[in-house]
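Next comes this protein:
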Amino acid sequence: MLTEADIKNVSLEKSPESVNFCAIWPSAKTGLQVLAGIIKNPVVKGVIGMIVTLGDSLCPSN
């Protein structure tokens, strides 16, 4: 489980003191996709879609 301290230390680089973004991206993506299915506002859905696209481009293997 992520803590507030982990969220402040998210990084795209692997290091002992940071959480690797690509390691948590699959879970975050799933949560965003569920949220997009619940939300009715098309602007918010578009923003979520852009975040998912950005995350997929940063972590293409996930």
Q: What stands out?
A: The longest helix spans residues 21-38. The chain has a mean pLDDT of 82.
